What does this fold into?
Amino acid sequence: MKRITGFVIILIILFGLSGCGVLTMYSDKNPSGKVLYNGMEREEDGAVGVMAAAFMEATEKPPDFPTVETVLYYQNDNGYLIPVRRSILKQDNIERASIIALINYPITQNEIRGYGLYPVLPQDLKVLSLTIKNSIAHLDLNDVFLNPLSKNQEQNMVVSIVYTLTSFDTVSGVSITVNGSKVKTMPYETDISGVLTRKNVMIYADQTIVTQGYAKFDSYMWIKDEHNNKWCIPISKQVEVMTVEDQAYMIFDSMNNLAESFETALPVNARLEECKYSANTVILDFNSNLLNYSGLEKEMEMISQIYLAAKQIDGVENVILRCEGKKVKLKEGTDISSGLFLADHVNRIDR
It folds into this structure.
């Protein structure tokens, strides 16, 4: 009771001092994660700073500000880019805040290190501006962006930015400038002169940019790291120009032909027999081997893998699974009527 009373008194003092002030943490204007008051750092300065610290101590956790779930691309110990679902503070330019969340600040390191993950962008990188016009994110960075330590870091920086921003419905492509100027190629020859999209940028591939005249698709595979975390990650492959149906066949064929470091939840010899695409819905008809699995965990991994792969097909809003032409009844009873939303739990972390 005393603790609650003290908490209320602190709130009264805080709002009395400011009129309409609010505490903010870990936002676009506050990458360090320090307690801010009315957008200004006051952690150790004056009565307001003291009261803000007391507020934090009394609640024993950050204030319950509204957050937005985002998909951020961090790397693991082996350099794989992991699409991680996590929440960040809701704010006007959430797309810009998502890029700041990729920078190697201590607060971000502390939040994701326990998952075996690391920020991709160097600590001295600055986001000078980010505006969105006609679904293109115009991102201006300082020249630290042009000093990668290796080809792998260069690729991961570009891919992480593009895939993170295009996770938002508001963004279909990214145009990158450095100190306000266009740059044709980076030190390890990644071409960033044009608009970068998920159609022309490749993830975990020998090259970052798709060769002109070709297309690409992403397979989704599972990896398990030494921290016992299991992640579903995209892996790009360059191919000749293809139809929507061809893309689906190639995606699911590739999931049965994987390197030793990857796992698939698709049962052995499960094959996509037919694909139909109409009115934003894709119908995926597999052979009977699709049901050759056991256990709820394997079932959820398989559904997640299929749905994440299907989400990349242009215009797809719904997926219907069939097995030998018939409606699928999954062995462990998972209800798949909610469609693509079933993939929204994948790679979620609680920080």
User: Anything to note?
Assistant: The CA atoms of residues 220 and 234 lie 5 Å apart. Residues 1-28, 32-61 have pLDDT under 50 and may be disordered.
